[in-house]
């Protein structure tokens, strides 16, 4: 397995171009199954999760072509059973259920288990499909969802932890071809849901209200091919902003949508950094002070869970006491024990992390446990003395396009050691 060696202490400056959003591209690629006609998707990041999704689409019968960030999919004839070997590698595979159910009125997908960031049920997805008239059966580790016909109806997709992003995507993708009107209350309002709705509308769907808590979908008979450009990845952007905060002398992010990053830029401003927003760029620079923070993760537009680990890395060396509370995935703290091995002073009390900023961190061999935790360990390495060896780099490659090359382009000293 590849590993990444981060030589701490380098200062970062210059420009970095943000890639297309992984969490937008995945459901958008799944949505191409809703039509027999070709769809062309631009700004698709080159990530292992995207490769898995393209493999699933091919397995389901679609013709898939990819050339430097542009993916063309034509799903003229499809089957409805997704392969276990690929689905088990990526939880987001569940978002093929919605389009398969919408188009073919059935889908069989291996049921995702938990993952290191916590329990990952799909009960809300199934609740939504049921509201549309579908039934489901769990057999041999698979979930089969099927319907004679899909009928629009009203539902709430609110769970114990709030709305569900992929659940909203999934139900929206099934409902676009249902008979009549569907109303999703307590819908997720993340920019990735809006991006998917915009793509579906380009395909001929009639969706209103995406980006609010109530989405209304007028079912149509069929969808057609469409061309779309995926939005910039707000979590990759947030991660580079934290890198700029930790080690930056002025780092400019290009091709971002600053309106998607308000919670993160507000937090970094409160933490003492200077942020300048101009069009589709954000520049972060030091301001001579680092201030502790109190942060709580919540659904969009609040502070994203996907940025929690990276903020832990910043706050680990911020003087004073910071407090982070994780409300979406209360156990998403796998990075904490690794950061402690680097000298961080973090104590966990349930879903709350209390971080006492330390003067120095020291490089250590650390284990990546999930995508964002791994990125956070690279960030911690940037501000540590000596070398931080991040193992199990495949977690990072699931969601960050060329993170080592991009950071090195800003002046970092990171080596990738091929297994
Ligand atoms: N939940 C349920 N029942 C469900 C679905 C979700 O109880 O049927 C709970 C979850 O356990 C969690 C909360 O609802 O407590 C929110 O989960 P959500 O369904 O919104 O998560 P997701 O759609 O599976 C997406 C992102 C995650 C991101 C979360 C939250 C993709 C591919 N994944 O997951 O991204 O953390 O939304 O914003 O879009 C990442 O990129 O590193 C990542 C994990």
Give a quick account of the main beta sheet: strands, pairing sense, barrel closure: 4 strands, mixed
Principal-axes geometry comes out as globular
Strand order of the largest sheet: 22-24-1-25
Tell me the number of helical segments per DSSP (H or I, 4 or more residues long).
Answer: 14
Structural class estimated from helices and strands: alpha/beta
The strand count comes to 25
Q: Beta fraction of the residues?
A: 25-35%
Termini Cα gap? 5 Å
The stretches of 5 or more residues where confidence is low (pLDDT under 50) are: none
What does this structure look like?
- With 419 residues, the protein is of the alpha/beta class.
- Helix content is 31%, strand content 27%.
- It contains 14 helices and 25 strands.
- The protein has helices at 22-31, 48-59, 84-87, 97-104, 123-131, 165-175, 191-202, 234-247, 262-270, 308-315, 334-341, 371-382, 394-397, 403-409; strands spanning 3-7, 12-17, 39-42, 63-67, 70-74, 106-110, 135-139, 142-146, 154-156, 181-185, 206-208, 214-218, 227-229, 248-254, 274-278, 281-285, 294-297, 321-326, 345-349, 352-356, 361-362, 365-367, 384-385, 387-391, 413-417.
- The strands form seven sheets. Strands 22-24-1-25 form a four-stranded mixed β-sheet, covered by helices on one side. The protein has a four-stranded mixed β-sheet with strand order 2-14-16-15. It has a four-stranded mixed β-sheet with strand order 4-5-3-13, with helices on one face.
- The longest helix is centred in the middle third of the chain and has 14 residues, at 234-247.
- The radius of gyration is 21 Å and the shape is globular.
- The N and C termini lie close together (5 Å).
- The mean pLDDT is 96.
- The site of uridine-diphosphate-2(N-acetylglucosaminyl) butyric acid has 26 residues, from α1, α5, α6 and α12.
């Amino acid at each position: 397995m590849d590993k990444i060696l981060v030589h701490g202490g380098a200062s970062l400056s210059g420009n970095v171009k943000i890639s297309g959003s992984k969490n937008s591209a995945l459901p958008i690629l799944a949505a191409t199954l809703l039509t027999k006609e070709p769809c062309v998707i631009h700004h698709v990041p080159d990530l292992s999760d995207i490769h898995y999704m393209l493999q699933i689409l091919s397995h389901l019968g679609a013709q898939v072509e990819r050339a430097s960030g542009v993916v063309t999919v034509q799903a003229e004839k499809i089957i409805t059973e997704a392969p276990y070997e690929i689905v088990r590698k990526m939880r987001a595979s569940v978002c093929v259920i919605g389009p398969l159910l919408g188009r073919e009125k059935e889908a069989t997908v291996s049921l995702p288990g938990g993952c290191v960031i916590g329990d990952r049920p799909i009960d809300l997805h199934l609740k939504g499909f049921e509201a549309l008239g579908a039934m489901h059966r769990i057999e041999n580790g698979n979930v089969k969802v099927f319907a004679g016909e899909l009928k629009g109806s009203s539902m709430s997709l609110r769970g114990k932890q709030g709305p569900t992003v992929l659940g909203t995507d999934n139900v929206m993708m099934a409902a676009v071809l249902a008979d009549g009107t569907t109303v999703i209350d307590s819908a997720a309002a993340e920019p990735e849901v809006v991006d998917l709705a915009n793509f579906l509308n380009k395909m001929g769907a009639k969706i209103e209200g995406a980006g609010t808590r109530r989405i209304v979908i007028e079912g149509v008979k069929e969808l057609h091919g469409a061309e779309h450009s995926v939005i910039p990845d707000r979590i990759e952007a947030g991660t580079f902003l934290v890198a700029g905060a930790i080690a930056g002398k002025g780092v400019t992010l290009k091709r971002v949508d600053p309106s998607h990053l308000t919670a993160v830029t507000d937090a970094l401003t409160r933490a003492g950094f200077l942020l300048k927003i101009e069009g589709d760029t954000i520049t972060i620079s030091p301001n001579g002070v680092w201030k502790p923070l109190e942060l709580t993760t919540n659904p969009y537009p609040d502070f994203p869970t996907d940025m929690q680990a990276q903020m832990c890395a910043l706050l680990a060396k911020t003087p004073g006491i910071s407090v982070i509370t994780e409300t979406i995935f209360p156990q998403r703290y796998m990075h904490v024990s690794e950061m402690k091995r680097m000298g961080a002073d973090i104590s966990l009390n349930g879903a709350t992390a209390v971080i006492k900023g330390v003067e120095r961190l020291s490089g250590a061999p650390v284990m990546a446990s999930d995508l964002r935790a791994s990125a956070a360990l690279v960030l911690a390495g940037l501000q540590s003395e000596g070398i931080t060896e991040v193992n199990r780099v495949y977690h990072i490659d699931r969601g960050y396009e060329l993170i080592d090359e991009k950071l090195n382009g800003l002046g970092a000293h990171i080596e990738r050691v091929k297994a």
